[in-house]
Write a structure and sequence with these properties.
Blueprint lengths: L2 H24 L3 H37 L3 E4 L2 H5 L1 H7 L4 E3 L4 H6 L5 E4 L4
Antiparallel strand pairs: 1-3, 2-3
Helix pairs in contact: 1-2
C-alpha cells in the first residue's frame, strides 16, 4: 500500500474514533472515553509519521531534481506539446508548481530540469 492510501486509511479510522468518542461522551461512558482517547492519540502519531515520510521523500526527490545542471521555465507552446519536448530532450523532468515536489521546491511556474541545455 502506498503512503497516500495508508494516510487516507488512518484519517478514516481517526474520524470514526472521534465520532465514537463523541457518542461515548454524550452517554458518560468513562472506560470507552479513555479507550477512544488512547486510540486517537495512537492514530494521530501514526498520521504524523506518514506525513513526515511523505515530506521527506518529496524533499529528497526535489533535491535530486535541483541537482540537475540546467533548468528553465517552459513556454505555453512547450507545455501544450509536452510529448514532442520530452522526445527531443533526453532525461527531461517537468515539475508543476501545484504538485508536492513543486511546492517543496518553491517554484512558481512549470519548469523543466535536464542535464543539458534545451
Amino acid at each position: 500500500m502506498n503512503l497516500k492510501q495508508e494516510l487516507q486509511q488512518v484519517n478514516n479510522r481517526l474520524d470514526k474514533c472521534r465520532h465514537k468518542l463523541a457518542a461515548a461522551m454524550s452517554r458518560s461512558d468513562q472506560p470507552m472515553i479513555d479507550q477512544f482517547k488512547a486510540e486517537i492519540a495512537k492514530l494521530e502519531k501514526k498520521r504524523d509519521g506518514i506525513k513526515g515520510t511523505r515530506s521527506r521523500q518529496a524533499n529528497d526527490k526535489g533535491n535530486d531534481i535541483k541537482a540537475m545542471a540546467f533548468n528553465r521555465a517552459l513556454t505555453k507552446a512547450e507545455q501544450a506539446d509536452m510529448g514532442k519536448l520530452k522526445k527531443s530532450v533526453k532525461g527531461l523532468v517537468v515539475v508543476h508548481p501545484m504538485t508536492a515536489i513543486g511546492r517543496e521546491m518553491g517554484i512558481k511556474e512549470v519548469t523543466g530540469f535536464a542535464n543539458k541545455p534545451f
